[in-house]
Design goal:
about 170 residues; 2 domains; mainly beta; Gamma-B Crystallin, domain 1; 4-stranded antiparallel beta sheet
Length: about 170
Amino acid sequence: MEMIVFFEDKDFQGKSYECKGDSVDLHSYIHRCNSVKIEGGWWVMFERSNFTGYQYIIGPGEYNDFHHWMGFNDCVRSCRIIKNAKGPCKLKLFDRPNFDGQSLEMTENMKSFQENWPRREVQSCKVLEGSWVFFEHPNFSGRQYLLEKGEYRHPSVWGALKATVGSIRRIMEL
């Protein structure tokens, strides 16, 4: 069963809210989020309502402090379940917008994107199978961007202001 439990305070203390599906506005249930328990599924939490703002992608487990999910602060205002977290993963990257230029196909995580790509930029991509996370920096750190199955003609389509990618991770059920 897919479920995420939000807690207003660290170490699973304070007011809590159990969520079993997508929620466009968590503010009516909790005012801040300092810890989270995920009892099933992979989730993307957003800093703002309506699935906007910084994204935090987290899987099953307990996170007793917002720093443990790489949160910038205790503000979580919306969330949704990630689909396509089962089965194979396949991604095709392009160094120019609209699926043009050099391309790279991948099926595995890439801890340091620059080691395998002449540039640190991805201008467009196609998620052929599964779901993936682009990280702003190497070693799966910095801002996160969820990319589910589909086509992304420009970085703004996946929510990025810049085309910089430092590392890439596929999302897989454990």
